[in-house]
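INFO  loader      accepted 1 record
INFO  loader      residues=365
INFO  predictor   begin
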Amino acid sequence: MKKWLSFLLAITMAISLAACGVAEQEDSGAAGGSGPAAEQTPETPDDGGEAELPAAENTGETNVLVAYFSWADNAVLAEDVDAVSSPSVIPPGNVQQLAGWVQEETGGDLFAIRVTDPYPSDWDSCLERANEERGSDARPELAEQVENLEGYDTVFLGYPNWWYGVPMALLTFLGQNDLSGKDVYLFCSHGTGGLARSVEIITEAAAGANISDSIFDCYEEEAASSEAGIKAWVNELGFGGEDARENTQAVRQIRVEFDGGTVVYALNDSAAAEALFAQLPLTVEVEDYSTNEKIFYPPQALDTTDAPPAEGGAGVLAYYAPWGDVVLFYDSFGPNASLYELGQAVSGTELIGQMSGTVNIEAAG
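INFO  predictor   done
INFO  writer      dumping tokens
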């Protein structure tokens, strides 16, 4: 009897050990590897060799290329990745979403800039590697190439701010693709560093390109809610079909002009925004308040009925009902029950902090 029980016990242990071995292989495969982002990992060929990634190809149906680098397209997700602490790595990523909306409006070809050696899905580890690449002026190898680049006249280029600049893979892309003579429009998702040196770096790397001064940028936490803003920016640039132009007309925009440049805002559909729009054109004095906002007083108070609360950071246009002032934020701010959102900057966000003195405000478009 004891021999029989010992035999059964040995079989049970063998099965358990085999099961543990399979589980460990699955866990290590999910957390590591060198393939592209989990949701876009190509199938492994039957011969056991490396999968051949498809190249983006211009079929001649459009002359617009929407190329972008997004962390979500360049990381293999670990099973325990935290969606709260690392939201931009969970598909769709911040820049990935922005690029999709640009593509919708322009009808252009979408191209994800992806590296052959993905970044960690842990933000601190990703940032450490990005800093190492920056320090060594690395050019990470790309998994895919753009074919028939000469067929594109216009390139929308999207990226996140990494270490006050750009991901080095973006410089690999610019080094492999000569954008000389092409019109290039930049869009960027960032943290408190804003655009930092990114525009300067790209301008140096693509010296022959016609890089527009009209740049769309937003805080990373606002990317998911920036669809209307970035589409309005695209249409302001003159892209999009008849439907897009009709949508642009439906979105009220205002232009704030001052000695340092121009900031364009897309207004929401609140009664308060409509009341401000109805008072244009205006010439007002902009004042500094605190360390994150500029303010001015419109001639008439705004109706805040059903106006949405103001949330976010740089680029938010708001109205503070108790004082009757319009607020132009150029940095993050805390919630306030009496602060209502009027709209969002769609271009010139980085210039808001430079406003001073007399400004002219008029309808844009």
